[in-house]
Amino acid sequence: MVFLHMSEEETIVRRVLEGDSQAFRWIVERYQGPVYRLVRNLLARTADVEDLAQDAFLAAYQNLAAFDSQRGSFAAWLFTIARNKCLNAAKRRRLVGHADAEPVDSRTPELALAEGEWLQRFDAALAALPFEQRAAFLLAEIEGLPYEEIARIEGVPLGTVKSRISRAKEKLRGLLEPELSER
Amino acid sequence: MNNQDFYERWRQTRAAEAPPAGFADAVMARLHDAERTTQLAGRMLVIAWLAKRQRSLALAAAGAAFLVRLAAAFSLFATH
Question: What is the ipTM score, two decimals?
Fold first, then answer.
């Protein structure tokens, strides 16, 4: 995960706020991977992932004036927006009765076989975690963010982040041990 | 492979995932569409305000003309 230097962040944000909307492309290109991955993994690889990841960037653009570099990094601010979009989408799905995990597998059957069923087992186990635990786990394990940064994104104390990640690992182990021990 | 190896392979696979090609273009296109819509809404507000103002000006002019005519009529009565 590459973080922008504060001065670089501020320069780009200032340029966008002064009307240079093209400067925002630089932000999109820089963060599209991490934001897309977070949304994709948080929403259990469903079909509307791309739209939601785009929504996160649009929301960031529209609220750019609210970004305060004194309160944290741009990455943390952007992840907070993406995480909240996912939480709202997950709530909406529950309200309209959609399955929380309806995976879209775009791989060829041959590749799916080659990768093995275990990859899907991990995804399914992750999707079974409560949203808060899943988010903290993904930010730490996939994006490699420090716990302090995750606490800022989640808006909770450091201890809560630690316990969420620890519980997530424990649950994943519990869900996967029987599967893996059979191999 | 042991459990840790399975986990590590899953982690690396998911961490290497990238958005589909053209993702940044799609975001920028949506952003410009949203901006155009905002600008259009802004222009329509200005036009509505101008139209309202124009109506007010026309009403004020008509009112002033009426008052002038009224004053003239009174002055006619007053002199005769």
Answer: 0.74
- Quick: pLDDT tens for A65-80: 999 888 888 999 999 9
Q: Is the pLDDT of residue A102 over 50?
A: no
The angle formed by the CA atoms of residues B55, B59 and B61, to the nearest 5 degrees, is 115
- Cα separation of A87 and A2, whole Å? 25
Out of B10, B13, B24, closest to residue A32 by CB? B24
The residue-averaged pLDDT of B15-31 equals 93
Cα A130 → chain centroid: 14
Residues of chain A contacting B34 with CB distance shorter than 8 Å = 58, 62
- Find the chain A residues whose C-beta atoms sit closer than 8 A to any C-beta of B: 21-22, 24-25, 28-29, 32-33, 36-37, 40-41, 50, 53-54, 57-58, 61-62, 115, 118-119, 122, 141-143, 176-177, 180-181, 183
